[in-house]
Structure formats: structure tokens, C-alpha cells
Amino acid sequence: MSTAATAQDANSSKGRTVRTDAEKLAADKIVLVGDSTMAPMSGWASMFCAHHVKSSTACLNLGRGGRSTRSYRQEGSWDLALGEARVPGYRRTFVLIQFGHNDQSSVAERWTEMDSEFPANLRRMVEDVRQTGAVPVLLTPLTRRDFVKGRLNNTLEPWAAKVRAVAAALKVPLVNLNAASAAAVQEMGPVRSMALAQTAPNGTERHQAGTGTTLKARPAAEARLPDVPTTPDGPRGQFQRKFDYTHLGDEGAELFAGLVARDLARAVPELRSQIAP
Question: If you count DSSP H runs as helices and E runs as strands, how many of each does the chain have, helices first?
């Protein structure tokens, strides 16, 4: 048989079923907004998108390190998130919002007042999302992994309480990640929970954790791993990877992404078919 004949047979519809058009896809979208505990390579959200969200739902991680409810808006990141929420073509769009770590900080451009400014910022975010036609979902802040005498020192619980109050007042779906993550970390204890960090602790940190009380985190310049080697014509961006009691490596990201998937399905039943355990 000639080459031309073989090609013609390969392109023939002989023996195939009668062709029909594919059904219109009813796609959803999830936009994740928050700080470094959500951001790529330091938080849980990229693992959530990769391992827990089906392909029929777009999942976009807009978490950025060092941002608070104030600085995320001031720098323009919030406008980008709202632009993503307005993109047409999706059946439903959900915007997941998680802040607290940097609202709690003392850095001049970040901190907010906990009792009034922080909840007011969250309320405004909820209202902004609703105006786009998307559905806001509030998350309480991921716990840190500091221990004192064997007990988790959950300094973010008061900030989590403010998130819960806003969610209740505005009837917003809530994922209580602070409570879920705190329970998981307390069960692991100060030594085992070190495996959730971006890299391993040093000997002194591990020994001190064995007493039940963790050390203060080392400065980033001391605790971080060296930059990854680059080439002149290759990728040159760097992620800061370090040991501390806040940020996450793959094991930590997978653990907390799974908790978010579980509790998001409970809080937003419409997403249950789109989220995998």
C-alpha cells in the first residue's frame, strides 16, 4: 500500500462512531488571596491547587509573602485579585481570603490594629468580592509552630477570632484553618512538627524543641538555604527557603492543603464535586 493510501486510511472516519459536539463545560474558578503561608514555595495554596482541585475548576494562587490586609491593597495586589474575580466564562468564582500574620507584625507598611482596622479591612474585601459577582470565603490564619512547655503558643488565635466574627456578621463561608492547623501541630508536638518547615532545623533548635519549648526563629539571613545555581540564559528567580516555625515545605503544604480541602467542602457544598481529599 502506498504512503498516500496509508495516510488516507488513517484520516478516514470509517469504523468510528457518529461525531457529536462536546457538551459545554460548566467551569468554576478559585482565587486564593493571602500572605506567605499561602504563597508559592512557602505556603499551602499551590499544593491545594495541584493536588486537591479538579481540572474543571481553575485555581489561581495570588498569595504573596509579607502582605497584610493593608499592604496587599495598597500595593495593588487586591485590584489584580478583583480583576481575576471578574473574568467572564466561569459558572461560579470563589475568592478565598487568609490574612493575619503580617497584620500582627510591627513592620511599618504591614501592621494593622486588631480590634478595628483588621476586621474593617476584611469587611471591605468581602464587599468588594461580592460586587464582582464572586463568592468570598474567609480563612482564619494558619498557626505558627511555636511551643512553650509542650503547648502550642497560638498567638494568632485572637486574630482568628476577628475573622470568625466578620464571617458570622456578613454570613460568609468560613474555613477555620487556625483551629484545624493548631490541633494538628499540637498533636505532632514541637519536634515532629519541625518536619513541616521548608528545611531542617539545626542541632540546637532540634535539641531545644525536645525540651518542649522552641527557640526564637533565627534571622532569615542566617537560617536561609543558599540560592539555587542559575545560568545566564536560564531561569534566575529565587525563592527564599529557610527553617522557621511559620513557613512550609512540601510536607507542611500537603498537610494543611488537605485540611483546607476538607473544611472548604464543608463550608461551600457547591465545591464538593470539584475538590479531592
Answer: 10, 7
Q: How many residues does the chain have?
A: 277
In whole angstroms, give the CA distance from residue 96 to residue 57. 14
Each as own residue / partner, the long-range contacts of residues 159-163 (CB below 8 Å, 24 or more positions apart, any chain) are: 159/100, 159/103, 159/104, 159/114, 159/118, 160/100, 162/114, 162/115, 162/118, 162/119, 162/122, 163/100, 163/119, 163/122, 163/138, 163/139
For the chain, the straight-line distance linking the first and the last C-alpha, in angstroms and rounded, comes to: 53
Cα→Cα distances 141→136, 180, 222, 238, Å: 16, 10, 26, 25
Compute the distance between CA of residue 40 and CA of residue 248 in angstroms, rounded to an integer: 10
For residues 126 and 170, is the Cβ–Cβ distance under 8 A? Answer: yes
Cβ(261)–Cβ(57) under 8 Å?
no
- The set of cell numbers assigned to 52 is 486537591
Whether pTM exceeds 0.85: yes
Neighbours of 69 (CB within 10 A): 26
pLDDT of amino acid 250: 97
Q: Report CA 9 to chain centroid distance, whole Å.
A: 51
Convert the pLDDT of each residue in 157-173 to its tens digit. Answer: 999 999 999 999 999 99
- Note whether 243 and 200 are within 8 A (CB): yes
105 exposure class (CB count in 10 Å sphere: 0-12, 13-18, 19+): middle
3-class SS shares of the chain: helix, strand, coil, % to 5: 40, 10, 45
49 vs 47: CA distance, rounded Å: 5
Torsional sign, CA 252, 254, 259, 263: positive
